[in-house]
Amino acid sequence: MKSTRVIAAVLLAVGSGLMLHIAQAQQEGIRRTDLLQRDLSVPDRDVVQVRVDFDRGAVAPMHSHPGEEIAYVLEGRLEYQLDGKPPITLKVGDALFIPAGTVHTAKNVGDGKAAELATYIVRKAAPLVVPGR
């Protein structure tokens, strides 16, 4: 009986933390759908996949990640600005590698909705998104 209460408390705490993470990651006009999170064979690393949907004109504010990101455009056109470099615009089927800790932003520059599949290789227990400058 005591074990059941402990397990329930742990699940509640983990679930609450996950919901807080999801709520913090949502910006106006941007929706994140967590698809996968798994341990890797590389010590202290996880792989995380997220679908990010952008309404027309939506902008993800400057941020970084505690690991590498691979962004693959599923729909529309997205403009990425990486840490002082010229912007790059990607269309459906294009991919972009973003090094760990690189401050960047993404903006929907198409005529309709846009979406990306973001794959992250990140440190375990680190926040997935870190607000940038």
Structure explained in plain terms:
The protein is α+β, with helices and mostly antiparallel strands and about 130 residues long. Helices cover about 20% and strands about 50% of the residues. It contains 1 helix and 10 strands; from the N terminus they run H-E-E-E-E-E-E-E-E-E-E. The protein has a 5-stranded antiparallel beta sheet, with no helix packed on it. Strands 6-5-8-3-10 form a 5-stranded antiparallel beta sheet, with no helix packed on it. The N and C termini lie far apart (about 50 Å).
Low-pLDDT segments, ≥5 res: 4-25
Query: What CATH architecture would you give?
Result: Sandwich
* Adjacency order of strands in the biggest sheet: 1-2-9-4-7
How many domains, in number, for the residues? 1
Cα-atom radius of gyration: 16 Å
How would a crystallographer describe the biggest sheet? 5 strands, antiparallel
Computed structural class:
alpha+beta
Number of strands: 10
Order of helices and strands: HEEEEEEEEEE
The helix content, as a percent range, equals 10-25%
The termini sit apart by 49 Å
Q: At the fourth CATH level, what is the homologous superfamily?
A: Jelly Rolls
| CATH topology call | Jelly Rolls
Mean pLDDT, rounded to whole units?
85
Query: Strand fraction band?
Result: over 45%
Q: Report the top-level CATH class.
A: Mainly Beta
Overall shape: globular
Number of helices: 1
Signal peptide: 1-25
Domain Cupin type-2: 51-115
Organism: Cupriavidus lacunae
Protein name: Cupin domain-containing protein
